[in-house]
Specification:
The protein has 283 residues and is an alpha+beta fold. The protein has a single domain, classed as Sandwich (Jelly Rolls). It has three helices and 13 strands; from the N terminus they run αβββββββββββααββ. The strands form two sheets. Strands 1, 3, 4, 6, 9, 10, 11 and 13 form an eight-stranded antiparallel sheet that branches. Strands 2-5-12-7-8 form a five-stranded antiparallel sheet, with no helix packed on it. The longest helix has 16 residues.
């Protein structure tokens, strides 16, 4: 008897939730929406315990220009992500010389980029440079030292190049890898660099996000950090989010929270010389 009642009850419930006897159909439970996920920024570690220098210890002229290279020593300079100076960087005839290794970017046994060990925010930076035949290098601003990553992953680059003999001059777009260009983003125009073996004069002005490149006393590039224009430049470059997400994240917010960073010189495996390096603070 008990078994019959249970079976009948089960049948009645089944009819109610289906179509028996005009009963109400069961409503299907709505499918759960997938949880919204935010894009997670790539993980990285900033090197914050490396030695820094006090600018008060460096010569300053009456117009406010601070000497970053005295023509004799590498005082104030050190390797990117290291406390000492790589052996490939030497002082040669009153110039900083990166001795070409022929092994490509940072390929020397004791090479790699160097930085001046002080963070700058608003400034004018001046220097002179020359290259050997077919040489490549660069000057970086607003560098953040990122563990295990190259200096250019976080910093805009003023390209240094022998335009006539290095193949990079013909790569990129519209000459945006030629000398004084914002590397792989904006070409320097007019393109007025001197041939290899001759000294060029350069300047970078960086003030509240506006950056201007000068080459041989002419303004050749202008861009504006932390703007929609800057994002679009990155989107169209080798540093786009799709091609290199960590570089994109760092460059989009270059200078970090305080919008400041180091100045650096690039070891690209070639012979390049830098001299008369000085800076004026615009804060």
């Amino acid at each position: 008897m008990k078994k019959t009642v249970l079976l009948a009850s089960a049948a009645t419930l089944m009819c109610y939730f289906t179509s028996c006897g005009g009963g109400k159909k069961a409503e299907e439970a709505p499918a759960e929406e997938p949880a919204a996920t935010e894009a997670v920024a790539p993980e990285y570690k900033l090197m914050t315990d490396l030695p820094m220098v006090n600018l008060a210890d460096f010569s300053k002229d009456a117009d406010g220009w601070i000497t970053l290279f005295d023509g004799k020593t590498l005082n104030g300079w050190r390797g990117y992500n290291r406390a000492d100076v790589p052996a490939s960087w030497v002082v040669d005839d009153k110039a900083i010389h990166i001795k070409g290794s022929g092994a490509g970017e940072a390929g020397a046994k004791d090479g790699g980029d160097i930085v001046f060990a002080h963070k700058f925010k608003n400034f004018e930076l001046e220097w002179e440079w020359k290259v050997a035949k077919g040489s490549n290098s660069g000057v970086f601003i607003l560098i953040q030292e990122v563990e295990g990553q190259p200096s250019y992953i976080s910093s805009p680059e003023y390209q240094i190049l022998d335009n006539e003999n290095h193949p990079d001059a013909k790569l990129g777009k519209d000459g945006n890898r030629m000398s004084a260009s914002l590397y792989d983003m904006i070409p320097a125009k007019p393109q007025n660099s001197k041939p290899f073996g001759e000294w060029n004069k350069s300047k970078i002005m960086c003030y509240k996000g506006t950056v201007v490149h000068y080459q041989n006393d002419e303004s050749v590039v202008e861009y504006h950090l932390w703007t929609q224009q800057w994002k679009e430049l990155l989107d169209a470059s080798k540093f786009s989010k799709e091609k290199w997400p960590l570089a994109y994240e760092l460059l989009l917010n270059c200078g970090g929270e305080n919008k400041e960073g180091l100045i650096g010189l690039q070891d690209h495996g070639d012979d390049v010389w830098f001299r008369n390096i000085k800076i004026k603070i615009l804060d």
